[in-house]
Amino acid sequence: MVAERATEFDPSKIKDQALRDLCNVLEGVRGKKSLVVDKALSGPLGLIAQPSLLQDYGVVQLHWIEDGSIDYAASKNILYIARCTAKNAYSIASQIKNAPRIPGQDFEHSLFFVPRRTPLCDRILEDEGVFGDVTINEYPLYFIPLEPDVLSLELDDAFEDLYLHKTYTSIFNSAKALMLLQQQYGLFPRITGQGDKGKRLLDALLRMRNEAAAEDASTSMALAPSSIIENLVIIDRETDFVTPLLTQLTYEGLIDEIFGINNSHVELEASVVGAAMQGPAEATGRSVGTAPAAPQGKKRKVLLEGSDRVFTDLRDNNFSAVPAILKKTALRIDADFKKKDDYKTVSEMKTYVTKVLGPAQKDRTSLSMHFNIAEIIQKHINTELFEKTLEVQQSLIAGYSSTQQHELMAELIARGASLETVLRLLCLYSCVSTGFKPKDFDLFRREILQGYGYEHVLTLDALDKVALLQSRTVAGSTAAAATRTNYDYLRKPLRLFSESVNESDPDDIVYVYSVYAPLSGGGSLNPNSAGWKGFEDVVKNVGGKTFDEVQKGEDKAVRARMILDGQNEKKVTVVFFLGGITYTEIAALRWIAKQEEGKRQIIIATTGIINGNNIIRAATTAARTKPRQT
Amino acid sequence: MASGLQNPTSTWELVSGQYYRKFTVFTPSWTQDEDFNLDDYLVAGAPFGGALALWKDPRKFHAYQGGQAAKPHIIICNLAGGLLRRITWDRGAIRAIGWSDDEHLLVVTTDGSVRCYYDLQGNFTHFSLGADAEEHGVVSCRFWGTGFVALLSNNVFVAVNRYDEPRPRPLALPKLPSPESKIHSWALIPPNYSDSRHVEVIMATDQTILIVDATESQDQILQNGPFHHISVSPNGSYVALYTGDGKVWVIDVKFQQKLSEYDSGKTDEIPLDVQWCGIDSVVLVWEDEVHMVGPAGAALRWYYDSRVNLVPEMDGIRMITTEKCEFLQRVPDVTRSIFEFGSSSPPAGLLEAVGHLERKSPKADDAIQLIRPSLPEAVAACVQAAGHEFDVDWQKQLLKAASFGKSVLELYNSDDFVEMCKTLRVLNAVRFYEVGFGITGDQLERLTPDKLIERLVARQEHLLALRISDYLSLPTDKIYIHWACMKVKLSVDDEDTICRTIVTKLSGKRGIAFDEIAKSAFEEGRGRLATQLLNYEPRAGRQVPLLMSMEEDEIALDKAIESTDSDLVFYVLLHLKKKLPIATFFRIINDRPLAYSLIETSARNIDTELLKDLYYQDDRKSDGANVILRESLMQENFTTRIDKLKLASKLLKDSKEHALDASALEESIKLLTIQESLERDVFEETFVGLSLNDTIFKLTRLGFHPRANKIRSEFKMPDKRFWWIKLRGLVAKREWAEIEEWSKLKTSPIGWEPFFNECLSAGNTKVASIFIPKCRNLGHAERINMWVQCGMIVKAGEEALLAKDYNSLEGLLPKATGAAVPEIQKMMQKLRPGR
Fold first, then answer.
1. A118 touches chain B (CB under 8 A)
2. Are B720 and A166 in contact (CB < 8 Å)?
3. CB contact under 8 A, B214 and A214
4. Of the segments A250-264, B402-416, B528-542, which one has the largest average pLDDT value?
5. Is B568 helix (H, G, I), strand (E, B) or coil?
6. Coil, helix or strand for A82?
7. Sequence-distant (≥ 6) Cβ neighbours of residue B669 within 8 angstroms
8. What ipTM was assigned to the predicted interfaces of this complex?
9. Would you kindly state where each structural domain of chain A is located, as residue ranges?
10. What is the spatial distance between Cα A181 and Cα A183, in angstroms, rounded to a whole number?
11. What is the pLDDT of residues A560-574, one digit of tens each?
12. Residues of chain B with CATH 2.130.10.10
């Protein structure tokens, strides 16, 4: 029978389950243990559990698999948690082989593969001769809710996997994760989307559905169309590389651009985080006159998420609106503090302290941090380099391409702008203009190689393979035309560009990039346009295959589900971004969700959060190869 | 009372206020065989009324039976003595035999080799308890539902927690009081009942008891040993100990409290076995004498003609002898309340009423009215009691009573009643002597019907299993699969007929794993049949392992690709790469893009030689060159680095399309060589690895202008870029004089604004201001602003005056201080003399 029936979409259940599973993993090994974790998993695990949980379950040591240095004296139980990649399997095998042999002291190796145990990893461990020395299990960690409306697989290398290496491991993982949603909430009644890799995901999903139906007669009821979720929209990053290449201009987007957000955490100078949030360690300083300056260079990790009220108010706004909001928040907090005069009786005071004062104090601490962050951002965006970068970007998406942009780009290289900044602009140019003219292409390749090093032959090759930076002879070919998004034709009908926007009280989705509406959100969901269907001619110019699939179930099962779930008024749309989503796109989708409030709930799901710098860094991996340490 | 029925209480016996019943479940078929004596055998019984395993007791003398029959064997039979399988044993001396909850038979030999017979057909998996066991030998074993613990002669306990992937692990070494101390007896606490959730061992040594788990050994500090028997109750809460002076102690598992004591009166003879009967009594067996110790330390005694073998169950104990197969349990409370002599409980009244009804006596109604207020409970009790009866007639009688009772009630939910009828039908079907399960209702509930069906299937009772599954609405796929596997193995028909029979029977059924059936066919050596059957498997991924073992390599690869599981594809590829000549391997991956990408990506990290071969045979020159380029980046040694680059560039030279890349690599060599010589000339500075732009910048910053110029012309760097880099370098060096020198030039390829900006950002307003007048391309307003940025308000004013911009002048006024104020005012006067 179906284990649990859901009546509304509740991502917190996914998190609870992940935490329970983690506890079982840790409990599976008795007594004290050394935990060895795949670095790529440390972030996601941090989102599920507090570090103290590990201590509670007897973890005495924490190591990274990549470091390969385990202190074997600490415990005889070694517990590995790793993604099921061949690389990890080889590393773990070699570590087990090299574990010291002490007579009478046998090490117990346990290994949990995330999200599943595969024959591949078993085979590798067998070939390496350690299969019998380790207990192998799996920890089915798929979606992690970052926010109530954002589910992420937190796969760091999804972009490379999909578009550079074309190994498609993340498609299978995404399909598995979406299958789990279907098993809980029922089939997505309709799946639409765009892009060749998106189509692959759809195919994988349909195949898994059929296999699940063949698997077990009793799941057929669960696999009737959902009455909670109305549809799934799959957006393949490949159909819109332009959006992430642009500099994000929302508050959260800018934090990501400038500081970098990983697994919802941002690393900041201790002085930015502020005294109150630094914990007791800092409070022991001298208390003579001025407060002691925070030690330079000390970094702190801060979790950015919805429970921080101040941040919630700020995150999705265009940065130009941020100062005003900060000011308003400051006034509000001030008012909260002053409210104490309104409360007379003891019980009223008690309510005040817990309901008003507590949160207000938290807000005040947070507010001071966000003032600091906003100050740094302001400084950053006032620089000439930033202004020039933005100028080029906005001209390019507006469709003005001239020698002036070329000169600006060359100037940025000569001025030593970061490689990411420059390549983002060049890629943007290539994407919106169907590649560079051969002469210009060669010119800019030279500029890059001389400006940033000849090893970037590798980077340029990678960008060519992803179709981000190409010569017009390649990009303009008929073969490439099928998968290429043509912005010249889309700009007007989809209203991607608009110069008249109110950034502080937006009336159009373009506010997130000040002048540009993300194609990813705009085309498929923007209520200001009519969605894909009404734009069939236009959609021809979006890259890759278009698909629209209706999933039906057996009549009996459909009726049973209707009776069980009832008819929900509010429908859920799940938007899955294959290959990653930017914070700005999330902001845009939230803006749309707000327009539809009460009628529709939008759940954003993705392989991970990305930005333009991540994309470029994926391409520069090879060029960053360093001599092996001997 | 209904006539013709034996009173249930005839099997009851009272001990310290509690009734126990002992009744014959089966009279085993071996009673027909006069030569058979169970005393010659050791017996192990599977839990939940499952199968028995019998093997010759090695300590006894056996009559010589001729050459063939002398080969040792293990007999597997059901409780009714029906033979299920005879396993010929050829693997050395058996030390212990046990069963798992899944009715897998475990056979452990003295040298620590273990076989797990996972079906009742004689198929098995094999594993060893390790070198320690081989060297020292196994002394004894104790089994629980999913694993077992073996004691070795060097006093090490080895635990196995699961049979699908057995990993024998030693427990902590017991801390024996002295090196001479012996282990008198031991028992285990299964993981699901221990505090640590891992298996624990309770063992008696010297006068005391130790508890041993994976990490430590704890002495319970007792003084009354030696204890010759230890037995843990089925719920893991109590321990029964048999002392040296013939007493039984029942203690809680924490060894805090002694709950009861019983003196068997036998000081000279240690019992053969001590086991729990349910959770409140303990059974002791001597050769032909049985004592059952009740909760308060009082006991029942029975005497037998042959040895009694005990098989403990959750709710009682099975006693198996040459003559019969009995079950002993405490009488369930509902049963007692109905049948106890003189009982006036409502359900007893209901049973009496239905008796009257059958005799058409009017007293039936009186009896009902008497218990009317508690009729619902009475009905429920009768339904429950029916489930506890083995006698079909009593089951019927009790259900009849319940049925009568519920017909009088106005509102009654019949779910329990219907459920019980179903359960009883299933119970009676499997208790039929040909099937031979001695299972109770409570045991069935614990075992679950699914597991019961698995056991039936293992006994080849496919039809019964199917009927029960359909009757209880349980999935039937596994039954069909098993049936088909057996068909494949045993049928003598030709392969086409078998395939047709199976497919016809299984078509339209959900969840049929054709890969499993195909696997059996393959294992039977019927390769073609396996291929035929595999085509019916809808799940591509599941076909892969079998196809691989069938050496259908390319089909396996295609099926893996079809499954969309990249890891599975890579798994097949890894296998193929090992097995095939490299040329064949390349041919196979060449027209399969996903396979190609997977090999390309993995080789990039671990096997660059393979990658080079791959690109070479594909004539992908630029990719091949990139591999070498990456290798050059990995080199610490300068010469090898250059050599690799030369190699890469040579590879690209031949083709026109890569001319740019080739020349870039040549430039790279040139630059590296220059950088290397720079490092020799300029001490303590690194140049190798910098880009061209950075090299020139660094030279400028360090003041080596001629060298910078030379490199610039060697690489034909465009003017604009060079000017920018030089400007940045000079500003970084704070070489203001040099910059001022530049201002004397007429034109600059990058204009003069950058000079202003860079100097200003570096904080030198004076030098910055020099360039303001040179920015003629800018409007006057911008120039005014530039002057203001340099803090030169008067100059800004002059600019405004020149452009006759009164408003700007007015705007400058508040910014002006000191002498500047009147100056600005004067200029404003000039423009608008009237004011």
1. yes
2. no
3. no
4. A250-264
5. helix
6. strand
7. B642, B645, B646, B649
8. 0.88
9. 12-140, 146-240+519-616, 262-278+298-374, 384-484
10. 5
11. 666 665 555 668 889
12. 37-61+71-166
